[in-house]
Amino acid sequence: MNNRREFLKAAAAGAVLLSSNSKLGLAAALDARTEAGKSKVVVARDAALHSASGQLDEKRVQALLDRAIATYTGINRPVEAWKHIVPVGKVIGIKVNGLGGRGISTHFALVMAVCERLQQAGVKPGEIIVWDRNARDLQACGLTINTDPSRIRVYGNDVAGYDDQQVAWGSARIRLSKILSRDCAMVLNLPILKDHSGAGITFSMKNMYGVVDRPQSLHSGYCNPGVADLNCIPAIREKVHFTIGDAMTSVYEGGPGFHPEHLWRPNALIVGEDRVAVDHTALQMLNRKRAEVGMPTFEAADRTPSYIATAADAKHNLGTNDPKRIHLMEV
Question: What's the pTM value of the predicted model, to 2 decimals?
Answer without folding.
Answer: 0.90
